[in-house]
Design brief:
The complex is a heterodimer of chains A (about 400) and B (about 160).
Chain A (H helix, E strand, L loop, with lengths): L5 E8 L9 H15 L10 E5 L3 H4 L6 H7 L7 E5 L5 H15 L4 E8 L7 H5 L19 H15 L3 H15 L13 H6 L2 E3 L2 E2 L9 E9 H7 L5 E9 L17 H14 L8 E3 L5 H10 L8 H6 L16 H5 L3 H16 L12 E8 L4 E8 L5
Parallel strand pairs in A: 2-3, 2-4, 9-10
Antiparallel strand pairs in A: 1-7, 1-8, 4-7, 5-6, 8-11, 10-11
Helix pairs in contact in A: 4-14, 7-11
Chain B lengths: L30 H8 L4 E5 L5 E2 L14 E5 L3 E10 L11 E7 L8 E5 L13 E16 L2 E14 L3
Antiparallel strand pairs in B: 1-2, 1-3, 4-5, 4-7, 5-6, 7-8
The chains are: A alpha/beta (about 400), B mainly beta (about 160).
């Protein structure tokens, strides 16, 4: 069977934050924004639905969620109707699966919706629920369900092995808050100084409040379609999905695959596989959305994705390379740190921002952006997911 | 009129909100790990066919898929490689200070590192290079139904503590 090309056609998201709305309310808001972005598309034209959500089963007491979502959105899927859970990478995983379905010819137009309602009536449950987000029987009893402790250890190791300084990962927060200031759909709209970052409440030293992304309620939606359908549906330049990769080398922290915690071979492997599939190298990427669940994560991701040499992520960020005009503008809509993190919706928000960048309609527009990349890690760094987008089809 | 189905479970056990593993032999096939732990032994499984040692313990060998496994002991002492302390705002079910360490069990150990809580340890005293040792403690029991009879299943878990000088 000949493969055909898959494109991302449009996207939309609801307001993220602590919302007075249920997951199914927010899913409807995001889907409306998405179809408003593609005026020619009607719900009846959509033949597939993938719903990305990690916690809807626990927080909203709803298993087999996809038919609930399909019904409320007026969809009648005939090729696929399923929920996807890869925790923080659920949304990107939905996009990768939709790409495969479209490329194979099984689906023509797939809606990928991500959403979480994390803030239920009592706030303690939001963090406590993370006992289910990691390897429960072995890691949760050690107190690392909420992940700051694990990433604080990671930061300490990166500082020890590479000389990274506290101010360097503080810079990540400042830059990403600056980008997110104009994103009214994000969780926060504010700007930070280094004093704000260094003097904020300690979460787990060396990480303070602004080094950590918030958990958020929210939803986001994109449409993935065949090249032919994409050109029918939209007059905007097509944006092709060149491919991606997802690696999982361990689950229990004791089986960490690196030489130390600042060494992420599972991300290097994902990057190698994704670039190979997309037939590009890291130098061709013009704009990236990397998983800044913590400021230190972004620094290590920039290294392992090949945007700077290993160990030099700190000075790289400090010298402004992730800002507009830098060598790899990153998290140009604010990232997780400013937009927030409703797990299943995050990869979809990242895809929307890349789509806008490659179509020249982003708020923080990177001039002539032609190739974009999204990255997520899941849980306490047990899985890595990459998707690569381009204005040109795969070579 | 009393209405059932309200979210207060009237003393009933909700496993989805349990921080600790369900360890009882009626529930899983690696209960030997917890029985060994109760005797102060830190153990895992080794394949009798190919010799692969794996952690955590399993029912099959992840290398050759043999189901003929034996129990072996892990080191009970290790050295701290990195430590993080949370003095306030600890997750529910934990008491401050919550101290976690990345512990090196040494060359030759079937698993080189473990992440563990360090208990019985004053705040701001643990540092890189310090020696720590296994410590076993009881955790809350939970009800389990065995042939229509409900009993309380007792449980233990492990952490590390500063090694005795």
């Amino acid at each position: 069977m000949t493969e055909r090309n898959a494109c991302i056609v449009g996207g939309g998201m609801c307001k993220w934050g602590v919302r007075e709305a249920s997951y199914i309310d927010m899913v409807q808001e995001a889907a409306k924004e998405c179809l408003d972005d593609i005026p020619g598309l009607k719900p009846k034209d959509i033949d597939g639905l993938l719903f990305a959500s990690a916690f809807v089963g626990r927080r909203s007491v709803q298993a087999n969620t996809a038919p609930v979502v399909a019904e409320r959105l007026g969809l009648k899927p005939t090729s696929i109707c399923a929920r996807v859970d890869v925790l923080c990478a659920s949304g990107s995983t939905g996009i990768l699966l939709a790409t495969g379905l479209v490329e194979s010819g099984m689906s023509d137009i797939v809606m990928v919706v991500g959403g979480e309602k994390l803030y239920t009536p009592e706030r303690w449950q939001v963090q406590y629920d993370e006992i289910a987000a990691i390897d429960h029987d072995w890691d949760s009893p050690q107190g690392i369900g909420p992940p700051p402790i694990w990433f604080a250890l990671t930061a300490k190791e990166h500082m020890k092995y590479y000389g990274t300084r506290r101010e360097q990962f503080g810079t990540v927060s400042i830059i990403n808050y600056d980008y997110g200031f104009s994103n009214l759909k994000g969780h926060f709209q504010r700007q930070l100084t280094m004093d704000d970052v260094l003097n904020a409440a300690e979460i787990a030293a060396p990480l303070n409040l602004y080094d950590c992304c918030p958990l958020s309620d929210g939803s986001a939606t994109v449409i993935i379609a065949s090249e032919e359908k994409a050109k029918e549906l939209s007059d905007r330049p097509p944006v092709y999905i060149l491919g991606g990769a997802q690696t999982s080398l361990h689950s229990v922290t004791a089986n960490w695959p690196g030489d130390h915690l600042g060494d992420w071979p599972h991300l290097r492997l994902a990057a190698e596989k994704a670039y190979e599939r997309a037939k590009i190298d890291s130098k061709e990427v013009d704009v990236a959305q990397v998983h800044d669940c913590f400021s230190i994560s972004e620094i290590i991701e920039l290294e392992e994705l090949g945007f700077c040499p290993k160990g030099e992520g700190g000075p790289f960020v400090e010298s402004g390379q992730t800002k507009i005009g830098g060598s790899i503008p990153a998290n140009t809509d604010g990232g997780l740190i400013s937009c927030g993190h409703p797990f299943g919706a995050t990869g979809i928000r990242q895809a929307m921002e890349i789509l806008k960048q490659l179509q020249g309609r982003a708020t923080n527009q990177i001039e002539d952006a032609a190739v974009g990349l999204t990255h997520n890690l899941s849980g306490v760094n047990v899985e890595h997911t990459i998707v690569i987008y381009s204005r040109e089809p795969r070579k | 009129m009393a209405v059932s189905g309200i979210p207060f479970l009237e003393g009933r056990y909700s496993p989805t909100f349990d921080l600790w593993p369900i360890e009882a032999k009626e529930f899983n096939r690696i209960h030997t790990f917890y029985e060994n732990l109760r005797e102060g032994k830190f153990t895992t499984t080794k394949c009798k066919q190919c010799g692969r040692e794996s952690y955590p313990p399993r029912v099959i060998c992840p290398e050759c898929y043999s189901d003929e496994l034996q129990w072996i002991e892990l080191p009970k002492k290790g050295k701290v490689k990195a430590v993080v302390e949370k003095l306030g705002g600890v997750p529910i079910c934990f008491e401050p200070p919550l101290i976690d360490a990345w512990i090196d069990l040494g060359e030759g150990s079937p698993v080189r590192h473990v992440l563990s809580r360090v208990i019985n340890c004053p705040p701001e005293s643990l540092k890189e290079g310090d020696e720590v040792q296994l410590v076993v403690f009881e955790v809350p029991s939970h009800p389990i139904e065995i042939r229509r009879e409900t009993i309380m299943a007792e449980r233990v878990f492990f952490a590390f503590e500063p090694a005795k000088k």
